[in-house]
Design a protein that fits this description.
single chain, alpha+beta, seven-stranded antiparallel beta sheet, 7 strands, about 25% helix
């Protein structure tokens, strides 16, 4: 029997909106260092293979740290390819950027929160999936399975782990933690 509304009529079927992808990690490094590693050292730690446009052709990934600033990858031939543009900027607490690597533009918000002098929680929310068709949600990622198969959840986990490793290694090298 179909669902009924308050008047007894048949209730309209409301399509499910794909929820945002949310991931977080703890980084054993101070807040400002963690934020700066994400923004200023992005090209050194981001796993460009497979999480980029050019994979093995990528020479660097850079962030123009301001509202309206671009996030781009630069290939070994000198060409640049946009990942997105900064929508909000709140150093060292976070930023939001458009994400143009998916078939339809989405949005990525990164938040950085100090939990202790050398412990930072980094959270990502990747949203805007409702803009995509079902077919796009099946294939829209560097990992198998697309959005529907959990590829973005797994992908952001890999990326945040790489950030945590890089930020912590630099903290230890600077003598900030033993």
């Amino acid at each position: 029997m179909p669902p009924r509304d308050a008047t007894g009529g048949i209730a309209p079927v409301v399509p499910l909106v794909p929820p945002p992808v949310r991931q977080s990690t703890l980084v054993r490094a101070p807040l400002e260092r963690t934020f700066d590693v994400f923004v200023t050292e992005l090209g050194a730690w981001w796993p460009v293979d497979p999480f980029s446009i050019g994979t093995d052709r990528v020479r660097d990934v850079t962030v123009d740290p301001r509202v309206g600033g671009d996030v781009v990858e630069t290939w070994d031939d000198g060409s640049t390819h946009a990942w997105g543009r900064m929508v909000t900027w709140d150093r060292p607490h976070g930023f939001t950027m458009s994400w143009s690597i998916t078939p339809e533009p989405t949005e990525v918000e990164l938040r950085f929160r100090s939990l202790a002098p050398s412990l930072t929680r980094v959270s990502v929310e990747h949203r805007g999936w409702e803009r995509m068709t079902d077919a796009q949600l099946e294939v829209a990622c560097a990992l198998p399975g697309g959005y529907r198969g959990g590829a973005f959840v797994r992908g952001w986990g890999v990326i945040l782990d790489a950030l945590a490793t890089r930020a912590h290694a630099g903290t230890v090298a600077e003598g900030g933690e033993r």
